[in-house]
Amino acid sequence: MSQQPDSSTRERLLTAAKKLFLERTPDQVSVRAINAEAGLNPGAVHYHFGSREGLIAGLLEEELRPLWADRMAQLLRGATAAPSVRELVVALVEPFADMVNTGDGRMLCHLLARAALPTGQLPNVSAQFLPAPFEVMIGRALPELPVHEVAERCGLAFSLVLETYGRPLAGPPRAAAPFPRAATVIAFVTAGLTAPPAESASDAVRTL
């Protein structure tokens, strides 16, 4: 049996949600409003996405995953060696820096920050849209770091980038405070990821 009707309904919901999120602040957009905008029954969002948060995750993955997937594919295509830390950071940061130049992009960055910052992860998305592949590649580029420290540094890097580009919406792009230059963010995140291994507690005691 064809799944097109379900797919079409999901797209209507995502389109309606995106329109409303662009017109209002996220807190002003209810599930009821999304269903009404899509011309669907009051249970449509919960049936197709499980919750409002599930719909937001679906919207973010549909809109944003291709950006990073394309960048990573370009990075790996024809490469003779594993990507460097800086190359990986560029692939992470530049899509954010481009997105915040448009109303659509700033809205999506803000939604992503709201959804991911409280727990450090975005629920209800596919494995391709999670930080794990990025962490694995950073770990390969920094073999001197233990796995737990790679994970901690990547978590700090993601939090910094989301805090930087996920600020609340404040009118048209030119009316908002300027974002830092992408080159500055890239240099800062790269420096944090490539810093010397953290001193252990026992080592710190011995140096006192």
Secondary-structure element series: HHHHHHHHHH
Instruction: Give a short account of the largest sheet.
Output: none
Helix content: 55-70%
Structural class: mainly alpha
Tell me the overall shape: elongated
Distance linking N and C termini: 71 Å
Low-confidence stretches: 1-5
- Beta fraction of the residues? under 5%
> From the alpha-carbon coordinates, what is the Rg to the nearest angstrom?
20 Å
Number-wise, the strands total 0
Average pLDDT taken over every residue: 85
**Total DSSP helices:** 10
Number of domains: 2
Description:
- The chain contains 10 helices and no strands.
- It is elongated, with a radius of gyration of 20 Å.
- By secondary structure, it is an all-alpha fold.
- The N terminus is likely disordered.
- The protein has 2 domains: 50 residues, Arc Repressor Mutant, subunit A; 142 residues.
